[in-house]
C-alpha cells in the first residue's frame, strides 16, 4: 500500500492509513506500506541542497526537524529514538555539505531523508496504535541496475531497479513480521553502494518494485482520486472512472497524459503479473481502477482520450533526391546528437514530420534553434508549435475505426498536422493547434460515447462520472423511464398481439413539454413535427400550448387538420419547388426562406410579404456529421456573406424580413450553444432593423446512454436570459423535435433466430432498418432490452440484427443481454423521435403500427 505526501502529512491522514492497513490485516494478508516524504518536504530538501552557505543549510534543516516534531506532537507521541537519529543525521549532512561524498551523492542522501523520516514517524505511529510495524530500509531491498549511457547524475538521481521476484526476500520478511513500513523514492547502488533516488514518479515506482520483488497479491496506490478516468476531469467533467484496465492500456493512458500514475510504475509488474489498484484515500468505498493482465474477451472500446499540450512538430523536407537513401538516418542522427527524444512520426516520400514531447525533452528555444540549424544542412526544416497531441487509447484501435466516423468528422474544421497510429494497435493520435484543444476534448469525449466507440454501457469497465463523484453534478434529472416498471406487463401484452410495434407514452411527451415551458426566456415554443407526426402527439403538444414547425406542405396539412386556427405554424422548406412557396403564401403559415434563389427568380411571389430568413452561421453541431446543418458542407441556410445581397433583393420586392432563424444541428447537450446562436442572430438582426423575432432552432439532445447527463434546462434558461437582457427588443422562439418525443417511444420486436459466426453471436429480431434506420444511418445507439427476461443476468454478447437484406441491418452492436430464446420480446428504446417517420417499406416488410398509451 503506497501513500503519497499529502496522505502522510497530518494526524487524520495517518489515522486513515491505520484504518486501511488494519482492514487489510483483517483480510489475513501481510502489508508493506510505502510512503513518500511529508508534503512539501522534498522541495524543502532540494532547497537545502541548493544553499551554498552552511548556516543557511543548518537553518533549513532546523525547519524540517520542526515540521516532524510538530506532527509528532499532534500525534501525542514521544520522539522515537530511530527518528531522533535520522533527524540528527540530516542536521549533520546539512552542516557538513557535500564534502568527500561528492555533490550528487550528497544531494541524493539528503533528499532521501524525506522518506527516511516520514517512514520512521509512521512506524512509531502505527505501532503505538496497536499495529506492530517493522521499519524496513528500502535500500536493503531495492538495488539500482546499471544502465547503458548513464552518467553520474542519472545514476544517482534517476535510478532504475531490477525487481525480479525474490522469494528469499519474501520469506525473510514473512518471518520478521506482518506489517512493514518503508520508503518510496530511494534505493541503493549494488553492494554497499551509495543511496540513490528513483527520479520522476518515484514513490509509486518503489511500490511497484516492491510488489514485483515480493510477488505481492497486489499493489495499492492510495491517492486523492479514485483512479484513472476516460479523460482528464479538469477538461472533461463527464469523464468516467476506468474500473478495469490491462497493463498495456494503462501504460498508454499514463504515457499520454494521465497524471495519476507515472508510466514507469507499470512495467515492473507486468511480468510477475501483479495487479495494481488505484484507490481514493478519502473515498475508500469507490471501486478504483484495477490494472492487471488482460482478462478474457472484452467489448472492444476506446478507453480514454487525452491531450498533451506544448508539443513541437519538426517538419523536414528532403531537398535532395526523391526517396533519397539514408535520409531518415541523417535526420534522426541530428536528434540523437542534440539529445532529443522523438515521439510521433509521420512520413512521406520527401517529408518526415516528428513530434517532440516536452515531458521527455528539455526543450527551449536555444535547443530548438541549434537542432534546426544542424538539420537544415540535410533538409528544409519547419518548426510548428505550439501543438497538442490528442490521443484515443484502447486495445484493438484499428478495429474500431468504423465507429469513429462521427468522431473524426469533428476534425473536419481543424488543422490536423499529423496523424499517427501506434504500431501496438493501442492508440490513435492527432496533432492539432494547441489553442483548439480545450474546447475540442469535451466534444470528442461526448461523441465517442454517442457513437458507441467508448462503450460506457459496460458497467464492469466504466464507473461513475467524475462530476458525479467529485463535483456538483445532479444526475437525478434523468429519472426512471416509463417503460421500466409497471408498464412492462402492458408492453409484453401488446407485443404478444403483434410485432413489430411502436408504442408511444403521452405522459412522457407532456412531461418533456412542461420541462421546456420552464424556459422563461423563450416567448414561443414550436414542435418540429418531422420528429414524429402521430396525431395524438401533435394533439397533446397543441394542448400544452406549442406551435408547430413544418418542412413540407404535407406536414403543414397534417398539423392544420388537427389544431385550431390560432396555433402558430412555421414553414421551413429547403430546396423545395416553387409551388410549395406559392401554396404556403396562400395559407397562414410563417414562411422561412434559406437561399437567394427564390428571391432572385420568383421574387414577385413574395411581394409585400413578411418572411423569416434562415442563416448559416458557418458551423454545424450535433450527434453525427449527417445531422449537422451548418457550414459549407451542409445545404441549409443562407451564408452570412450573402445576407446583404438578400436584403437588397428583399428591398427591391418590398419583402420585410421579420424573423431570423438558425438551426445548427441535432442532438446537442451543451446549453451554451443556443446562447451563442441567439447572440449572433441578435447582432445580425440589429443590422437589419425590421426583425422582431429570433428563432434559434431545435437540436436539444437527449442522452442515449443510461448514465449520460441530460441537457440542463435551467442552465439553458440562464444562458438565454443573459442574451435576452442585452437584446430585450426581440422575441425568442425555439422549435425542438427530438427533446419532446424521443423518450416517449419504444419499438417492440420479437426474437426470430440466433447464429454464431466466428467470435460473434447474432440475435435476430423481426424488424430492423425498415422500422428504425438511425443505427444504420448515424451509428446511433439505442438501448436494447430483453423485456421477457427482466432480472436475468446479462451474460451473452449479441449483435442485434433485423431481417432486411442489408449487411447494415444492425440495431445494436456488442450488446450484453440475458441469453435469449425465440419469441422473446425485445424493446428498442428512445425511438419516439425519428423512428416511424423515417421507416420504409423496404423488402415489403411491415415497419410496425403505432400504439399510443395515455
Ligand atoms: N428545426 C429545423 C429547421 C430542423 O431542421 C430540425 C431538424 C429541427 C428544428 C428539430 O431538431 P431536433 O430538435 O429534433 O434535433 N433524423 C435525425 C435528426 C434530423 C433532424 C433534422 N432537422 C436523427 O434521427 O437524429
From TrEMBL:
Name the enzyme group at the top EC level.
lyase
Under the GO molecular function aspect, what terms does this record hold?
A: aspartate kinase activity; ATP binding; diaminopimelate decarboxylase activity
Provenance organism? Frateuria aurantia (strain ATCC 33424 / DSM 6220 / KCTC 2777 / LMG 1558 / NBRC 3245 / NCIMB 13370) (Acetobacter aurantius)
What protein am I looking at? Diaminopimelate decarboxylase
Q: Which cofactor is essential here?
A: pyridoxal 5'-phosphate
Q: Which InterPro entries match?
A: AceGlu_kinase-like_sf, ACT-like_dom_sf, ACT_dom, Ala_racemase/Decarboxylase_C, Asp/Glu/Uridylate_kinase, Asp_kinase, AsparK_Bifunc_asparK/hSer_DH, DAP_dec_asp_kin
Keyword Plastid appears in the UniProt entry: no
Q: Could you list the residue ranges that cross the membrane?
A: none
Supply the Pfam families for this chain: AA_kinase, Orn_Arg_deC_N
GO BP, one example? threonine biosynthetic process
PANTHER family the record matches: DIAMINOPIMELATE DECARBOXYLASE, GROUP IV DECARBOXYLASE
